[in-house]
Design a protein that fits this description.
The protein is of the alpha+beta class and 180 residues long. It folds into 2 domains: 74 residues, Glutaredoxin; 86 residues, no CATH class. Helices cover 55% and strands 9% of the residues. It contains 8 helices and 4 strands; from the N terminus they run βαβαββαααααα. Bound molecules: glutathione.
Length: 180
């Protein structure tokens, strides 16, 4: 099995977590997005949209992290990463949380990282404040869903802290980002 991926990509990380949970061996093929390697013809033959991650499992080529993970769950069901078949409501909830992470959390945090990675004088403070408010709503939702308070703050702070551009420009990574 081969995974075409770029280490900082959160969607690739999602797939790598499932591969690790299932104990599946694979070859990591780096597609360096900073060098535009996703636009090379040989990669576009795997994913015409030019995005990582892409999984190649023998004759099967799949792109999009959610679909890759569904494939892994179908093809390699043990150990499962979704609630059992038959527990439809719980499976739906797991999928909703995944969708929420993809559409309402990862993107916003990524945009905030991008803004904080700029030199301070170039940052759009209005945009930063809007993103902080949006992330704060997301964290409230996750804290409510998880029934816990502190872990989400810390996870979010780590995400930003580990961003190289943000670190390079001395971004403050803890409560100041979420305004708490
Ligand atoms: N919905 C896709 C999103 C994948 C995606 O946006 N990947 C980004 C990197 S995190 C990418 O490859 N961007 C390259 C580009 O847009 O040129 C998934 O879940 O796999």
């Amino acid at each position: 099995m081969k995974l075409y991926d770029f280490p900082p990509c959160p969607f690739g990380q999602k797939v790598r977590i499932v591969l690790a949970e299932k104990g599946l061996a694979y070859e990591f093929v780096q597609v360096d997005l900073s060098q535009g390697e996703q636009r090379r013809p040989e990669f576009l033959r795997l994913n015409p949209f030019g995005r990582v991650p892409v999984l190649v499992d023998e004759e099967t080529t799949i792109y999009d992290s959610t679909i890759i993970n569904e494939y892994l769950e179908d093809e390699y069901p043990e150990p499962p990463v979704l609630p059992a078949i038959g527990s439809s409501a719980q499976r739906a909830r797991a999928r909703s949380l995944e969708d929420f992470a993809d559409t309402s959390f990862t993107l916003q945090v990524g945009q905030l990282i991008g803004e904080m990675g700029k030199a301070e004088s170039d940052r759009d403070q209005g945009r930063i404040q809007r993103m902080q408010r949006s992330i704060e709503r997301v964290l409230d939702y996750l804290n409510h869903e998880s029934g816990q308070c502190r872990c989400v703050d810390k996870a979010d702070a780590r995400t930003v802290e580990h961003s190289k551009p943000a670190r390079r420009n001395g971004a403050v990574c803890d409560r100041s980002l979420t305004g708490r």
